[in-house]
Amino acid sequence: MSVTQPKGEHRTGTGRRLLAIALAALTGAALAGISGRPPSVFERQGAADRYERAALDWWSRLQRGDVAGVLRLTPSQDRAALPRKRLVSALAGALGDRLRATRATVVASERSGAARRVILRLDTRPHGQPVTATETWVLGVRVGGPAGALRVAATSWLRKELGLDPLAPADAAARRAEAR
Fold first, then answer.
1. Is the same domain home to 144 and 165?
2. Percent of the chain having pLDDT more than 90?
3. How many domains does the chain have?
4. For residue 18, what is the enclosing H or E element?
5. Do 28 and 99 belong to one domain?
6. What is the largest CA-CA distance in the chain?
7. pTM check: above 0.70
8. What angle do CA 122, 152, 124 make, to 5 degrees?
9. Are 64 and 29 in the same domain?
10. Residues with Cβ < 8 Å from 104, sequence gap 6 or more?
C-alpha cells in the first residue's frame, strides 16, 4: 500500500475490507469449534467420549470418598464382592489419602466387545512432597452397560487395594512399602 492514496479509492473501502476480514475470522473460529469457554474438567483430563467420562467420574467419586456413587457406578454382579463397610473405612483411611493425592488422566480407550477398556494414568504426589516423590501407575477399567447407565468394572483392583485379594498381602500399604 502506498503512502499516497490512489484517486479512486476512498478511506471507507479500507475499513470495509478490515471489517470483512474480521468477520471472516470470527466465522471461521466459530466453525472451528472455538467457543470461548474454558475446557471442562473431563476435557482437561483427556476424556473424549462418554465411556472415558464415566471412568473419570468413577475415579472422582473414589477420590471424594463417595461410596454410594462408586457402588452405583459398579456393575450389579460386582457389588457383592465389595463389602461396603470395608470400602468406607478404606476410603476414610490411608487409601483415601493416597487417592486424594492422585490425578487421573485418560491415556487410551479401546473397544472390548460391547464395552470399552479405558486406560487411566494415575500420578500420585503426596501433599507437601517434592515432585520427585511422584508415583505413576496405570489402571485399566472396563466401562460398559446400557447407553444411559454406563458401569465401571474395576472390582479386582479395588479388592486388592482393600486387602481382600487372597493372593496379596493383607495390607496394601505394606505391599507398596516392600516394593520400594
1. yes
2. 18
3. 2
4. helix 11-31
5. no
6. 91
7. no
8. 15
9. no
10. 45, 56, 59, 60, 120, 121, 122
Secondary structure class of 84 (helix, strand, coil): helix
Same domain assignment for residues 93 and 57? yes
List of residues 6+ apart from 48 with CB closer than 8 A: 106, 109
The 10s digit of each residue's pLDDT in 46-90 is: 556 888 999 999 999 999 999 999 999 988 888 888 888 988 988
Tell me, yes or no, whether 13 and 81 share the same domain. Answer: no
Residue 94 forms part of a structural domain: yes
Amino acid identity, position 134? T
Same domain assignment for residues 98 and 147: yes
Give the torsion through C-alpha atoms of 133, 134, 138, 141, to 10 deg: 110
Please give the Cα distance from 130 to 136 (Å, whole number). 14
17 and 77 share one domain? no
Q: Are the beta carbons of 136 and 143 closer than 8 angstroms?
A: no
